[in-house]
Amino acid sequence: MVATTEPLTRETFPAEALWDLSGLFPADDRWNAEFAELESMLPGYEKLRGTLGRSAGNLQACLEFDMNLMRKLDKVYTYAHLRTDEDKTRTADQERYDRAMRLVTRISQARSFMDSEIMSIPRETMGAFLDAEELKFYRLHLERILRHREHTLSEKEESILAASSEIARAARNGFDMLDNADLKLGTVQGTGGEEIRITHGNFQSLMQNYDRRVRKEAFETFYSAYRDHRFTYASLLASSIRKDLFYSRTRNYPSVREQGLFEENIPVEVYDNLIRTVHDNLDPLYRYFALRKKILNLDELHVYDCAVPLVKDIRWNMTYEESVGKISQALQPLGKEYVSTLEQGLLQGRWVDRYETPGKRSGAYSSGCYDSNPFILMNYLDDNINSLYTLGHEAGHSMHSYYSRKNQPYLYAGYTIFVAEVASTFNEALITRHLLQEKIGREMKIYLLSREIDNFRGTLYRQTMFAEFEHLVYAMAERDEPLTVDSFQEVYGKLLSLYFGKDLILDKDLPLECFRIPHFYFSFYVYKYATGISAAYALADRVLEDGKPALEAYLGFLRSGGSKYPIDLLKDAGVDMTSPEPIRTALNKFSDLVGQLEALFVH
Question: I want to staple 500 with a disulfide (CB 3.0 to 4.6 A). Which of 47, 126, 197, 504 is the partner?
Fold first, then answer.
């Protein structure tokens, strides 16, 4: 599918182009029945309240009841959220999703006594419980809960916080609906005079258009929509930040950032090392911008000049099916089982909702639950190389989920976000390696090298800039400073100047970019992309250089799910993220890529 004046509807596509959710629920009435069963189970929590400290058996009974209920809830929620993401304008699906979220809140409130009651069990008694045979399976789970002892409130307070979760999502939900359903991004006249409706899905393709007039007008039209709604976006983002601040202070964390890192047991030094190491290695990025300006023969380099391919005689066109074949070839080093499972899932297994349609959620993700396929939402475009890479990226997430669910019980199958980006970026590294090893001319090599450089720039440098922005604006909130349109843009504008350097002109509307990043509604998430790419490239090098032992260590990492803390999982696979060395190595790789590109233009 290529960018068109009007997107096609879901009914236009054959069944294999749409994900198949029937494995979750074959019909809506089955979802309703499961929903009703969950509601009927809710009183079970009240029967367990006050019994957890009596014996190891009682504690086991509560944990087992909770685990079984939560597994059912995951299935109900997953179906609802996937269906609503198909089309944000379908009222029935939105109502189902709202029902699911209200049920999530009710269950959260009903089970809110558990952690505080577990914390109240005397340490000596809990020590004996942890050694009991009945709780052997739950030991790691309990130890993770007990880490939160000083941040857990009374049973009544926990119940109030649980009840507030629905209103706490208001800012995120408001952003989601405004950005995906209500916002009109305008149109741009294409190279041939045709009118193209700008969407989140085709904006990047427009930024790769060889016609600079198209790129410039698309950029300005796109950001004018955000300028027209900047006060609403600023209010939503400020509300989300203040919500996070409320919860961190209520739970006695020193900061929102430390709360965000605590859950995965990530040292604060990992975050600081990332920003510090990137700051120390901005020169290769500046070299790249200067080189891009020279190659494009521009008097001024703007952001809308930073995605267009550096060679004009190459047009990328690859169908979805061809991309699956290319990804399969690239991932051969991961073994036959990995590749065949992935290929069947993407082509015959209907894991993927492939193309952009009206109302569909923008972007891409991998999602699912323990009892479903690892589904992938795409907005695939044949004429955008990013679609190939995005599919490979999300396929990495899905295979990580596939292996972890296959090899771990429900309680320990969920891996954390810190390691989630490793498997996805690992796949991207192998895709680039494969494409560069094919018989290609100078022009294609330039095209692929610049694509890989831009991937590094977008994932390592850009996400670190996002992470620094989050750190700065949350610190402002913690100092009770105002969060306004102007203050957000001032902070973001200074970071743009730092990260882009003197060879790139910052258009006046570019600081509005801070209002269109959905990940800012999931606080202290984006840094994990940057640490993830660093770990991924280190592991990819190990697998390619060391062969079978390194591959088994990597597949062991995928199979391990959440059975250890993420730092320990990566150490087992061969990478120590408490050191700045993986970040430094990745940045050196970026510098080397820039050097290779520079060499191709030396006459």
Answer: 504
